[in-house]
């Protein structure tokens, strides 16, 4: 491996200094992060474009740069179809879920659940979110550390510490303003890194047509796999349907994203942020997918994993940078800065949102802390930053590849939470007993299904080592073809594609929640009726219907009736 040159360190160090400087700036200017409104919501004065970049960066991060390139290299382009789910999901999140949270204006998204179902539901859901974000932080910290250790002389352990400490520093000091602004800067670096890879690949290999031709000849081009078998890892169905539920669980009800959307002054501008982030998200996703094909065209006759140049596919992208850019001063540093930036943006977002949820959902209901809230928030940010570093060392236990591991976590926890919020916002007869029953049972089932062992390994497409320089270290018979067919005797639930996790979790939570709610209503001699529910806790089309019912029943005086009609 070729280490960093002096200019690579200059570029890399510059990125660290700028990110830290943004945190320092917002920590000592304006209101100096002394109020919860400024620390968690930026006084609700952030711009739509800034929030849009932050929404994209906190979702995609280093997982996209490392995982999607590897996905297209080894499994082909079927994953790209998930971008259709993004455009379908954007109006659902913008016009069904977001208006409810904007009406509430709460510091924690899970305050909604207390108002709709009760305190117990709020705590259970908040704990599930905390589990999801802590596990995800570990993966996105692990991913760039892997890239850094593969390209530079830094150790894997040292890389994790560097990433974790820097993002903990600026997110703790500068609050949500620092997080959002650094997200914009880091998003641009992510694009710069991936386009550096694409441009260098085009120079080395030829034009776009040559890359697509090579990919097609080796079976990497696939968009129309309509196989309905749920055990098929990626198909049109898994990517559109499964991707839609993952997208909605993140952009519709995940506190980290809801918190960002509430930093904008009004609902219309917040909805605009969601629409702006969609093309940014799609552009990065498609560009990263193409970068994976560029890498395959470059290594088509000597797969680095089979040749034992690297230990696993997650290191393909940094290896490509070493092989194509190490002679160009600063380009390797730009690439690693992009990877590092992706992780910084996501981890800082998670730290900030976890601190908010912990204060609002766990501490405030028990202790009176209004006078010291910001001090507690900063202490919590430090705590979660340290916890994130610890979790990163365990990320390798979560499965084959950072992309699949992250999407598995999203589905296992995000699907049931999406079902829970939908139960509250769309179904007037749902109650707390049904909500808790649906959430706990679906979470338990998904954790068993998503992480149970033993499970089959994904089957990659064929690779070759025919033109490797040193064949003496290669088991050619084992590595020039696709991996052998896994036996079919694995437990069926463990063979279902991870992409269905969010769908299954959503449906289980919703169905169990509704059934148990109906049973509880029949057993309760004084059931709650739609008349006693707050219309503001429901999706806009249901809210309008409830307000019309209230007006027709003449439950309000004339002035209030006019307000309801408006």
General description of the model:
- By secondary structure, this protein is mostly helical.
- About 3% of the residues have low confidence.
- The longest helix has 50 residues.
- The chain is built from 21 helices and no strands.
- The chain has two domains: 409 residues, Sodium/glucose cotransporter (Up-down Bundle); 38 residues, no CATH class.
- It is globular, with a radius of gyration of 24 Å.
- The termini are far apart.
Structure summary:
The protein has 566 residues and is mostly helical. It has helices at 6-27, 36-41, 48-75, 82-104, 111-116, 119-151, 156-205, 208-217, 236-251, 255-261, 267-298, 316-325, 331-363, 373-392, 402-426, 432-451, 476-479, 492-495, 501-523, 540-552, 558-565.
Keywords:
566 residues; mainly alpha; Sodium/glucose cotransporter; 2 domains; 21 helices
List the helices and strands and how they pair.
Elements: H1 6-27, H2 36-41, H3 48-75, H4 82-104, H5 111-116, H6 119-151, H7 156-205, H8 208-217, H9 236-251, H10 255-261, H11 267-298, H12 316-325, H13 331-363, H14 373-392, H15 402-426, H16 432-451, H17 476-479, H18 492-495, H19 501-523, H20 540-552, H21 558-565
Helix pairs in contact: 1-7, 1-13, 3-6, 3-7, 3-10, 3-11, 3-13, 3-15, 4-9, 4-11, 6-7, 6-12, 6-13, 6-14, 6-15, 6-16, 7-11, 7-12, 7-13, 7-14, 8-11, 9-15, 9-19, 12-13, 13-14, 15-16, 15-19, 16-19
- End-to-end span in angstroms? 67 Å
| CATH fold-type name of the largest domain | Sodium/glucose cotransporter
User: What is the name of the CATH architecture of the largest domain?
Assistant: Up-down Bundle
Instruction: Let me know the number of strands.
Output: 0
Shape: globular
CATH superfamily annotation of the largest domain:
Sodium/glucose cotransporter
Proportion of helical residues = 55-70%
Structural class, from secondary structure content? mainly alpha
Please state the CA-atom Rg, rounded to the nearest Å.
24 Å
């Amino acid at each position: 491996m070729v280490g960093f040159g002096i200019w690579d360190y200059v570029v890399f160090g510059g990125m660290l200094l700028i990110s830290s400087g943004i945190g320092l700036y917002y920590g000592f200017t304006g209101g100096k992060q002394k109020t919860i409104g400024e620390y968690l919501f930026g006084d609700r004065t952030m711009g739509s474009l800034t929030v849009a970049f932050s929404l994209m960066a906190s979702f995609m991060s280093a997982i996209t740069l490392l995982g999607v390139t590897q996905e297209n290299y080894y499994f082909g382009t079927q994953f790209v179809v998930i971008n259709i789910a993004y455009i379908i999901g954007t109006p659902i999140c913008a016009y069904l879920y977001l208006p409810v949270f904007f009406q509430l204006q709460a510091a924690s998204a899970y305050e909604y659940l207390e108002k709709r179902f009760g305190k117990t539901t709020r705590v259970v859901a908040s704990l599930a979110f905390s589990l999801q974000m802590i596990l995800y932080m570990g993966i996105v910290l692990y991913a760039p550390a892997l890239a850094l250790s593969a390209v530079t002389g830094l150790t894997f352990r040292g890389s994790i510490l560097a990433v974790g400490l820097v993002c903990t520093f600026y997110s703790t000091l500068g609050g949500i303003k620092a997080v959002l602004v650094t997200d914009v800067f880091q998003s641009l670096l992510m694009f710069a890194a991936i386009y550096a890879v694409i441009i260098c690949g085009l120079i080395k290999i030829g034009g776009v047509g040559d890359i697509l031709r090579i990919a097609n000849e080796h079976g990497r081009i696939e968009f129309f796999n309509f196989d309905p078998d749920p055990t098929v890892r990626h198909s049109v169905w898994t990517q559109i349907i499964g991707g839609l539920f993952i997208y909605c669980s993140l952009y519709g009800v995940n506190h980290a994203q809801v918190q960002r959307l509430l930093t904008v002054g009004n609902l219309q501008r917040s909805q605009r942020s969601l629409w702006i982030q969609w093309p940014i998200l799609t552009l990065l996703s498609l560009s990263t997918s193409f970068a994976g094909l560029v890498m395959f065209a470059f290594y088509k006759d000597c797969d680095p994993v089979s040749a034992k140049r690297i230990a696993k596919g997650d290191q393909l992208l940094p290896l490509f940078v070493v092989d194509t850019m190490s002679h160009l001063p600063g380009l390797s540093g730009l690439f690693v800065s992009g990877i590092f930036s992706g992780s910084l943006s996501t981890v800082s977002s998670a730290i900030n949102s976890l601190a908010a949820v912990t204060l609002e959902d766990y501490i405030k209901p028990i202790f009176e802390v209004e006078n010291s809230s910001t001090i507690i928030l900063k202490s919590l940010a430090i705590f979660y930053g340290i916890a994130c570093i610890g979790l990163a060392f365990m990320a390798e236990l979560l499965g084959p590849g950072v992309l699949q591991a992250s999407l598995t976590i999203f589905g296992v926890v995000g699907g049931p939470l999406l079902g829970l919020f939908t139960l509250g916002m769309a179904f007037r007869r749902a109650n707390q007993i049904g909500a808790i029953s649906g959430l706990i049972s679906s979470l338990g089932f998904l954790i068993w299904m998503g992480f149970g062992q033993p499970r089959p390994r994904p089957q990659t497409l064929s690779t070759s080592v025919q033109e490797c320089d040193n064949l003496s270290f290669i088991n050619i018979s084992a590595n020039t073809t696709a991996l052998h067919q896994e036996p079919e005797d694995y437990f069926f639930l463990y063979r279902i594609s991870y992409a269905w996790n969010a769908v299954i979790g959503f449906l289980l939570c919703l169905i169990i929640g509704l059934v148990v709610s109906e049973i509880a209503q029949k057993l309760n001699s004084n059931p709650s009726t739609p008349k006693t529910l707050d219309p503001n806790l429901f999706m806009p089309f249901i809210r309008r219907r409830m307000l019309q019912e209230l007006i027709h029943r003449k439950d309000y005086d004339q002035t209030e009736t006019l307000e309801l009609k408006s």
